[in-house]
Amino acid sequence: MSGIPAISVNNVIKSFKDVKAVKGVSFTIKKGEYCALLGPNGAGKTTLMEMIEGIQNPDQGEIIINGQTWKKNELEIHKILGISLQETNFFDKLKVGETLELFSSFYDLESERSNEILDLVNLQEKKNALVKNLSGGQRQRLSLGIALINRPEILLLDEPTTGLDPTARREVWEILFRLKKEHNITMILTTHYMEEADYLCERIIIMDKGTVLADGTLDQLVAKNNGAEIIEFSIEGEASNGFKLNDEKIKMVRDDKNEKWKITVDDIASTLPSFLEEMKQKGIKIKSLECRKMTLDDIFISMTGRRLDE
Amino acid sequence: MKQFLQLTKIQYLEFFREPGVIFWALLFPIVMAWGLGLAFSGKAKQERTVAWVKTSADGQLMKNFVHDTAGNNKESVKILGNKKTGFVTYHFVPSTWEDATLMVKRGRTTLILEDIHDSIKYFFDPKNPEAQLAYFQISTALKNGSGSDDQGQIQPLDQKGLRYIDFLVPGLLAMNIMFGSLWGVSYSLIEKRSKKLLRRMIATPMSKTAFLFSYFVTRISLSFVEVIFLLFFSWLYFDMTVQGSIPALIAMVLAGNIVFFGLAVLLSSRTANTQIANGIINAVSMPMMICSGIFFSYHNFPDWLTIIIRQLPLTIIADTMRSIFTEGAGFAETKMAILQLTATGLLFFVIGKRIYKWY
Q: Are A194 and A241 part of one and the same domain?
């Protein structure tokens, strides 16, 4: 059984009225793999996740989880999946401990499991607090705790840190990181935070407009984009929008939101002097200049011309 | 079984951790029974206002009647009636014609008196029983020259079962069963769907039947608590008792809950919007509350409409409960109603569950 992939998504298509939300997506997730599904709002991430979670049925294609399908093995799949939906509200009038006990009863688990989960997601102090009185970060940790209550083999998290402040986000990351180290759990996580995908996942699938744009490790994605480093700069007199570099092979993109230009290069140290010289010769005055490593956001912009958080 | 017990437990916790719900479910029906019971029983003083138009300055009849010796334009008070019919305090408010018609339009009075020399003219809507009563009471008192007529042949109707409170309480019980299910089950389910909680719960091995059944069991048990509360109050305060079969009454409460639980599941089967939920629940409950004879008899509606009204679940519950309370009915008289409600409830439930949108 160990050779069977945790999740296989085969040419899945899903439409809502006039909108084609997912347009023939395929990928396979190995057991123990942490995979980020990255993309802007409306990319089709949530629809794809809901089909994997069994909440929606694909119009076409097939989803196989641990060698089983939703049609034939609904109960078995439920037992091995841990799910955290986007923006789930729980029972406001229930306490944290009661909520965990309720969900553990669905899996016929011993009540001790609720206490283990409270420890795991650092909510022991909030055991007797009403859910409505929890902060955003605590609610997300409760949601994660409920996802983990049945000791799942596969964890499906839909934007688990959206709307959280950096500290609360990092707390969730640490829990997920610990799970990866201590348990051989498989995870798909949707996000539009590139640093989240970068920090937690060895594999990244970038989606946009219902299709997969790129799939691989961060290094593989960077390699595909002709370079690993970025020179980002702004110039005086934005009227000179249409200027070009002598070497037309160098990929140059303008980020309208920041009013900055980006050049993707293999090696900043060797490229920068000739670049500055060329700008001087062209009489273009540089206002600001930053040299850095390539990020997922850069990859996304170079693929689509848009930012991930748009 | 474990999940069913947990699901049922959370229903109770949700109910009792909402102080407003306790007021509306338990105390509000009592407040209504008390308020309406008093308004239509001898326990409250009856007050009526009459517009008094003084056309001529020398009209002595009304002046003498209300002992208005001062002749100024102040309100005069006269208590009419006797121990058998009950006493009514009449407030005669001197008015111009304009003021008097305005008072009628605004519902402050139903009767205008015009004082012309040695006679009185009465103006009122003959279809309005309250105005008719005021007219008879005042005109009789004026003829007798006194406000009291203890020798009259009027027999007051105040035996148990004939009072307004005896009519009202079974209706309130029926209404409570309806609102308990429609708001307690339907709205709660739609709210859970709108909060995506329903979606989260069924993404586990939770049994959908156990989930819905936990609602039903909670509603039934709370419904019996509500019934006992209202009955105890009505017995204590209005000396009201159940003249018919108690087991039949229990079966009726059960059947009433089944029909409205089925309807609640059906109404909540599709929408995820709580504002639409408000609209749907009001659209279903308000016509029944108005037409089904909860507060006043539906026999004043046209005949063709009463045929429809009699088939409404709320009407069947209210009418059957009244027969148990006041006519001494038992299972023999109520079994058809119980069967009809149960069958209708099961039908609603089966359709609702079949088209239920869990996501």
A: no
B159 burial type by CB count under 10 A (0-12 exposed, 13-18 middle, 19+ buried): exposed
Has residue A305 been placed in a domain? Answer: no
Rounded Cα distance between A272 and A268, Å, is: 6
Query: Does residue A301 form part of some domain?
Result: no
- In A119-163, the DSSP E strands lie at 154-158
What structural domains and CATH numbers belong to chain B? Answer: 2-38+160-354 (no CATH), 46-144 (3.40.190)
Strands across the sheet with A60-65, in order?
Answer: A19-29, A7-16, A60-65
* Interface residue A89 vs chain B (CB under 8 A): yes
Of A217, A249, A278, which one is at a domain's C-terminal end? Answer: A217
Same domain, A209 and A245: no
A173 and A239, same domain (yes or no): no
Mean pLDDT per block of 10 residues along chain A (310 residues) reads: 84 91 94 91 90 92 95 93 88 94 93 91 94 91 94 93 85 88 89 84 92 89 76 76 72 77 84 88 87 81 72
Tally of domains in chain A: 2
Which run of H or of E encompasses A10? strand A7-16
Q: Domain holding A45: CATH number? A: 3.40.50.300
What's this model's pTM, rounded to 2 decimal places? Answer: 0.75
Give the pLDDT confidence score for residue B72 in this predicted structure. 65
Whether A106 and B13 lie within 8 Å, measured CB to CB = no
Assess whether A92 and A202 both reside in one domain: yes
What DSSP designation does B293 have? T
Residue A306 lies in a domain: no
- The amino acid sitting at A84 is S
Q: Do A81 and A31 share a structural domain?
A: yes
Asked if A16 reaches chain B (Cβ–Cβ under 8 Å), the answer is no
List, as one string, the DSSP characters of A158-219.
ESTTTT--HHHHHHHHHHHHHHHHHS--EEEEEES-HHHHHHH-SEEEEEETTEEEEEE-HH
CB contact under 8 A, B3 and A79: no
Distance (Å, whole) CA A40 – CA B115: 84
Whether residues A171 and A275 fall in one domain: no
Calculate ∠ Cα A282-A286-A290, nearest 5°: 130
A159 touches chain B (CB under 8 A): no
Name the closest residue on chain A to residue B189, using Cα atoms: A91
Q: How many CB atoms lie within 10 A of CB A237?
A: 10
For residue B129, pLDDT beyond 80: no
Helix (H) or strand (E) segment spanning residue A37: strand A34-38
**A298 found inside a domain:** no
Structural domain boundaries, residue A283:
226-293
Q: Are residues A254 and A201 in the same domain?
A: no
Q: In terms of domains, do A186 and A56 share one? A: yes
Report the complex ipTM: 0.80
SS3 for B201-243 is HHCCCCCHHHHHHHHHHHHHHHHHHHHHHHHHHHHHHHCCCCC
How many Å apart are CA B311 and CA B291, to the nearest integer? 11
Which chain A positions have a beta carbon within 8 Å of B205's beta carbon? 75, 78-79, 106-107
Assign A50 to helix, strand or coil: helix
Quote the CA–CA distance of A204 and A73 in Å, as a whole number.
Answer: 28
